[in-house]
Write a structure and sequence with these properties.
Layout: H1 17-40, H2 44-58, H3 83-92, E1 109-115, E2 129-135, H4 141-160, E3 165-170, H5 172-176, H6 195-205, E4 207-211, E5 213-214, H7 227-236, E6 245-246, H8 256-270, H9 274-290, H10 297-306, H11 312-315, H12 317-332, H13 335-349, H14 364-375, H15 380-387, H16 394-421, H17 427-444, E7 466-473, E8 481-487, E9 502-504, H18 507-516, E10 525-529, H19 537-550, H20 560-563, E11 569-576, H21 584-588, E12 614-620, E13 625-630, H22 635-645, E14 655-660, H23 666-682, E15 689-695, E16 698-704, E17 710-714, H24 717-724, E18 734-736, H25 746-749, E19 757-765, E20 768-774, E21 780-786, H26 790-810, E22 824-831, E23 840-844, E24 858-864, E25 870-876, E26 879-882, H27 883-886, H28 890-901, E27 914-916, H29 918-921, H30 928-948
Parallel strand pairs: 2-3, 5-6, 7-10, 11-14, 15-18, 19-22, 24-27
Antiparallel strand pairs: 1-2, 1-4, 7-8, 8-9, 11-12, 12-13, 15-16, 16-17, 19-20, 20-21, 22-23, 24-25, 25-26
Helix pairs in contact: 2-3, 6-10, 8-9, 8-16, 8-17, 9-12, 9-13, 9-16, 12-13, 16-17, 18-19, 28-30
Protein name: Class I adenylate cyclase
Keywords: Lyase
InterPro entries: Adenylate_cyclase_1, Adenylate_cyclase_1_N
């Protein structure tokens, strides 16, 4: 270790200029050593770039790289090229001749510094050259623009030499105030929110290439808090000349908000590249845990130089970080975290110690890493494991992921707690922390149905050459099966002796996991043991292709805007009948069915449902891949309901794909399901809409209210009619699936419902007639009645509806600014008559009964009673019949009275012509269907009594 005498200058005793020169020389000694190390790892052409950069900023020459104009800022403070650099320039451009500047010309370029990994143990062939170009604060804007153009040209030239260079313009005066010209000052910088942490990194890592040296070098650590007065004394008393130094500020205090900003930035990057971020994340944690008395690493570095500890290995920026983290974690007894950062450092350095060096002589980086791993007591096996990271597969990656995710999650919790404790949770920080929390949640949180992503930047390729896919009985429950994936190509006798890479209850869950993690790619060979399933190699191949097409990898980074909103489906893939033959019995008998009824939900004469299972894969706006399985009698409707409920209210819709590869009728099944989803989706909106679907002999009514979609399963046609007769909160259109109620008159009636309208439909069937009504809210009422003629069929209903409308209108306020629209009553006949299928509707005029024509008036008043009962009072031509008088014999008494009024005591039906439900319905939602239902019940009781009287 290089060790010299410690220097402790005291401004009060007067500072010896020789001491300051000695200090500067020490920093330059370390700087020179780092620059030499940087050069060693560069190619000849890259070395040329680094050597020539100071000269190229010092002169303007039309034939040299970076030339913009003769007036572009040029001149590097205190720089004079040596013969070796001039020789390099002449080799580049033979006509170049260097002319030393005479007198005291302006030197607008105050300093050049190299940032990044160059000169460190982690320097690699692809390491960037991040160059800070510190210029005169008095440069006008036009000159700064020319300087920016010069930097762009130099970057382009460097690229032709195999060097990736990034030039960042720095105005020292503005920088000390936290105001940057370049929002980013390194290619790994998150912006303006980390001024002091960036300055800390600059002071301990930057390599000086030319120009003025940092004034900060000359301020002892114990004077950092008095930086302003100390530097003022140095300059004011001419211990240091102003044209020799560059002032970028001090590190006496770091605001706590910077730790939050730095931590959030590293966490954001760590989600995709955790190894690169863990070291910086943990350093941020160390700093934050010491706040407000933070001993940042740049101050340790400066103290070491002042103390004469100039060992380049121990002053290496990465080693300095590691030693600080080792000290912190050892003190806390956190052995697992310490092992993780050791792995991160080893992988960052990327020197494979388990293999011999490429050259006979070992590099200084390899020697340093060998010394470190020796301290850590790593075995050859440990080194071989890490060195084979490019070949890591599922098991190694899964184990490493746990440690990395634990570290990232811990860091997020630490940051959140720190923000609350220090009360630095400004609205911006709170929002950013919330977004970051969601980003971590989306990337790493486990939940039911979510496909876990196990390889966040751990290994380059998890694809396996050969795999075996097995369906076998599940140990969970008798009769159930499971799917498992094994390494290699195994036969039926071999696979039970091996541990699978992954198990899943359902095949698609397993295939989705393989796809999301890249375990299966286009070159993977799969051996299939389908077990009791009907899965074929053809279907398996197509399932994998569908996954690859629907969810191409890699997934794009989730935008912040997406994370500010709840996750919503972006791509949905529906896979129907995976591993199932819906016509298996026919396939086994080798029977090919021919039928005119080809609907996949009611196939053949026995109306078979061919949609038996659905597997839904949904990639949402947070890049979460979710898998749901639907089977059982209502699989299709449950899937459709959940899909519709998952959609956002603002009308955005996911990209939906439906695929089916089963043995029989696959294309037709997929097309039918896709049409159904598309139809239901087209009716999902703000208005309360319904959708009627028939599956086999059963009916399903979907309530299409966004976010509250539900479905009612109805076993037969009478159950459907009863359901459609339920009251509605408002007008509700009913849309029929293209195959629903095929051949039924309801298929013509139900789709034409209209708001603010009562529609009456009748169909004659010999001595009977089917009477149907759609009320103003599109509720259905239906009654089968004896038929004599249209007049006697329709007139009683017309009178009843007129009385209902009269009562409804009588309750409405006359002074309302927007009175409800008057309800029209429309009549239709369903044609043709049975036994032919109903084919069309014809509009009919209302029945015309003369006003003078007498009719028997039967009015009913229904009132609530105890225990959900009602009291009924009937008026026959204004004569009262009540339960108070007749009790349970009420309807018999009315029947006898009616028969007594008829000429020949005929027992033809009697109809209720007026009904009051005001005490039942109150002032609330009085819907026509309520009146029709009570009318039916009262007429049934009354006509039953007529037949018995």
């Amino acid at each position: 270790m290089t060790r010299t005498q410690e220097i402790r200058p005291d401004i009060n005793d007067g500072i010896d200029r020789k001491v300051l020169a000695q200090l500067r020389a020490r920093f330059l000694q370390v700087n020179g050593g780092r620059l030499d190390r940087a050069m060693q790892a560069l190619s000849t052409r890259q070395q040329l770039v680094l050597r020539l950069l100071p000269l190229l900023f010092h002169v303007n020459h039309p034939l040299l790289p970076g030339y913009v104009s003769g007036t572009a800022p040029a001149g590097l403070s205190g720089f004079e090229p040596d013969e070796a650099i001039l020789a390099e320039a002449i080799r580049l451009t033979r006509s170049f001749t260097y002319k030393p500047r005479r007198g005291n010309p302006p030197m607008p370029i105050h300093g050049l510094f190299l940032m990044g990994s160059l000169g460190t143990v982690a320097q690699a062939e692809q390491s960037d050259m991040d160059l800070w170009v510190c210029h005169d604060p008095l440069l006008p804007a036009a000159a700064v623009a020319e300087l920016r153009r010069k930097c762009d040209l130099l970057e382009a030239w460097a690229a032709t030499q195999g060097a990736e260079a990034h030039c960042f313009l720095v105005d020292p005066a503005r920088f000390t105030l936290g105001d940057r010209e370049d929002a980013q000052l390194t290619s790994d910088d998150c912006g303006t929110t980390q001024h002091y942490l960036l300055l800390d990194e600059f002071y301990r890592t930057a390599i000086w290439l030319g120009g003025r040296t940092p004034l900060w070098w000359l301020v002892p650590v114990y004077e950092e808090a008095s930086y302003a007065s100390y530097t003022q004394a140095l300059l004011g008393k001419r211990f240091v000349r102003g044209e020799e130094v560059l002032d970028l500020g001090n590190l006496a205090r770091i605001p706590p908000s910077e730790f939050i900003g730095a931590g959030m930035w590293q966490l954001f990057k760590g989600i995709e590249s955790p190894y690169k971020s863990v070291l910086k994340l943990l350093l941020t944690e160390v700093y934050a845990s010491e706040h407000p008395k933070v001993e940042c690493l740049s101050l340790r570095f400066k103290q070491a130089v002042f103390a004469g500890r100039l060992d380049l290995d121990e002053l290496d920026p990465y080693i300095v970080v590691y030693r600080r983290l080792e000290e912190y974690l050892t003190a806390r007894g956190e052995r697992e975290r310490l092992e993780l950062i050791r792995r991160c450092l080893y992988l960052k350095v990327n020197k494979k110690l388990s293999s011999p060096p490429r050259h006979r002589a070992k590099s200084w980086q390899r020697l340093l890493l060998e010394r470190l791993t020796g301290e850590w007591n790593w075995s050859p096996r440990d080194l071989a494991m890490l060195d084979s990271r490019s070949q890591w597969k599922v098991r190694q990656v899964s184990a490493e992921r746990r440690a990395l995710v634990n570290e990232l999650t811990y860091s997020y919790r630490f940051l959140s707690q720190f923000a609350r404790t220090e009360q630095t949770g400004s609205q911006l920080n709170s929002r950013d922390l919330g977004v970051l929390g969601r980003r971590l949640y989306a990337a790493f949180e486990r939940k039911a149905g979510k496909i876990e992503f196990i390889n966040p930047g751990i290994a380059p390729d998890l694809a396996e050459d050969t795999l075996t896919l097995v369906n076998s009985p599940s140990p969970e429950a008798e009769g159930e099966t499971q799917w498992a994936l094994y390494n290699g190509s195994l036969n039926g006798q071999e696979w039970p002796d091996f541990a699978p890479l992954k198990r899943a209850r359902e095949l698609i869950e397993l295939l989705a996991w393989c796809h999301r993690n890249g375990v299966i790619d286009s070159s993977t060979r799969l051996s299939l043991h389908p077990g009791s399933s009907d899965l074929t190699e053809f279907e398996l191949s197509n399932l994998l292709s569908s996954l690859q097409q629907a969810i191409p990898l890699p997934l794009p980074t989730v935008s912040e805007d997406a994370l500010l909103h709840a996750a919503e489906p972006a791509t949905v893939l529906l896979l129907v009948n995976v591993g199932i033959d819906p016509l298996k019995a026919h396939s086994q008998l080798n029977v090919h069915m021919t039928t005119g009824r080809t609907d996949s939900l009611g196939y053949s004469g026995v109306r078979e449902n061919l949609v038996l299972t659905l597997d839904q894969l949904s990639l949402n706006s947070w890049n979460e891949l979710l898998v749901s399985r639907y089977d059982g009698p209502h699989a299709l409707l449950d899937c459709l309901r959940d899909f519709l409920n998952s959609l956002p209210a603002d009308g955005r819709r996911p990209n939906l794909r439906v695929r089916c590869f089963c043995r029989n009728r696959a294309a037709a099944i997929a097309q039918r399901v896709e049409e159904l989803f598309s139809d239901a989706l087209s009716h999902l909106g703000e208005q309360h809409q319904r959708y009627l679907l028939q599956v086999q002999q059963h009916y399903h009514v979907l309530e299409l209210q966004p976010g509250q979609v539900s479905h009612a399963a109805l076993g037969d046609l009478p159950a459907l009619i009863e359901h459609l007769g339920e009251e509605q909160p408002d007008y509700s259109p009913l849309h029929l699936d293209r195959y629903a109620l095929e051949g039924e008159d309801l298929a013509l009636i139900l789709p034409i419902g209209r708001p603010d309208c009562i529609q009456v439909f009748y169909r004659l069937d010999g001595q009977q007639a089917e009477l149907s009504v759609l009320d103003e809210y599109n509720a259905l009422w239906r009654q089968r009645l004896p038929y004599r003629d249209e007049q006697s069929l329709l007139t009683p209903l017309q009178r009843f509806l007129q009385s209902v409308l009269y009562r409804r209108n009588a309750l409405l306020p006359l002074d309302s600014p927007l009175p409800p629209a008057a309800l029209d009553v429309l009549y239709y006949e369903v044609l043709p008559a049975p036994p032919q299928r109903a084919k069309h509707l014809e509009r009919r005029a209302p029945p015309q009964a003369p006003v003078s024509h007498p009719f028997y008036d039967v009015q009913a008043i229904v009132e609530p009673a105890d225990n959900a009962r009602v009291h009924v009072t009937l008026y026959c031509n204004h004569r009262e019949f009540s339960e108070l008088e007749y009790g349970h014999e009420l309807f018999s008494a009315v029947a006898r009275h009616i028969l007594a009024q008829r000429r020949e005591a005929e027992r033809y039906p009697c109809y209720i012509t007026d009904l009051d439900l005001s005490r039942i319905l109150g002032d609330g939602h009085a819907q026509t269907i309520h009146y029709l239902r009570y009318k039916t019940e009262l007429e049934t009781a009354l006509n039953s009594a007529l037949q018995s009287a």
